[in-house]
Model the fold of this input.
Amino acid sequence: MSHTGSKILNLNLQIWRQAGPDQPGALKAYQLSGISTDMSFLEMLDILNEQLIAKGEEPVAFDHDCREGICGTCGVMINGQAHGPDNATTTCQLHMRRFNDGDTIVIEPWRAKAFPVVRDLVVNRSAFDRIIQSGGYVSVNTGGAPDANAIPVAGHKQQEAMAAAACIGCGACVASCKNASAMLFVSAKVSHLASLPQGQTERSKRVVSMVATMDKEQFGNCTNTGECEAACPAGIKLTNIAQLNREYMKAVLFSGE
Amino acid sequence: MSDSAASPSKAGILDWFGLRWFFRFLSSSIGQKFVMAITGLLLCGFLVVHLEGNLLLFVSAEKYNAYAHFLHSQEELLMVAETGLFVLFLAHLYLAFATAWGNAKARVDQYAVKQTKQAKGLWAASPSTWMFASGSVVLGFVILHLIDMKFQARPDIVYLDEHAPNAPYANALAVLSNPISRVVYTIGVIVLGFHLSHGFASAFQSLGLNHPKYTPLIKWISRLFAFAIAAGFASLPILVPSLSR
Done:
């Protein structure tokens, strides 16, 4: 598979190992050699795990699914950056050509009170699911598929909704925020549905309910540092958080919620 | 559902006034940042008025004294204004502690390594990361400033009796000429400027005002405002002592 230009890396890995939610964890050092720069970051971890299994050791647990950057399942802190050094890139789409021979790579799980560690690099992100369950949906009966353009949506609204819908719910915003705030995630979901006609019926109820759940799940507050926007692999913008603030104020002041 | 956090069985004074929604708003993260933004912006307004008055030191002793006497000629109004200011400050402070406490609880285990992905350049010190710290320094400075000027309780400064016609000017000069004050005041207002450079722009975001049409402008105005406030106030301890010579 290797083509001209690919190189072989020898790496010093520092990986967070934790046997279970209530077990103490620690960074453990691993030497890994013969890693091609053509590999993805997760393939590098696969190689490590194969070696660990061959030696009779427990492999490193990490979340992954589609490995094409759209499912939001993968995600670890790589040298202190959510999903690693690239912008707008998930961990699975990060490639080893971003690293140099002899590099030390520190790999840690997302850290937040609301995302408890399940094992090693796997965290429980059910808090996000509970936020969605509390209002991140449209429950009006939409009937059969409407004719194209039967429901008018302004072009710029459609684009805003689409940009917000790009959120894959990976949790990098929470992981990178100094306050472990979930505002970027919640704002993406709220903006997405508030921009579309189908989302209007439950617009006020949705934002009040989702913010209440967000607070209950003990995510931190937004200090507007912009770390989440920089870390987001899906390019969700801070303007969504401003829209969330507006939606919330409108719902509190002008609706029955 | 989670939005019914307020249990209906506990009817109290809030229900009497129909204000349970308001209480819920004030205890929500977004509501708290909203109040933080409003109080912050109102305090910014106070800074402008305060600086305006203080810059009269450079105009003349008469103008400054006249301004001070004018303020104190309306004791009732002054009391209302001072109480309002105190409430704003207290609310801003309380919310700073409340949100910082919530934030600290939101991440118990820290990262071994943490790096930003933001291109920070000149602003590497990142005012947004240091709001609580810079705010604490400003609080300390404000307390010292009140002891110096309002309560006139600095043991190392000889104050003129407040009924003396020249008292406001002479006392301001006495405090501002003190070498310790000069250093503390200069540092205090520079940290204040640092706080404002994020706080002013951030307030608009918290209020939901962020749009490509005007957000870049707000960010520049925020920096300019922070610089003007810091430079304006710093000019007092730096330049005013030379007026007496």
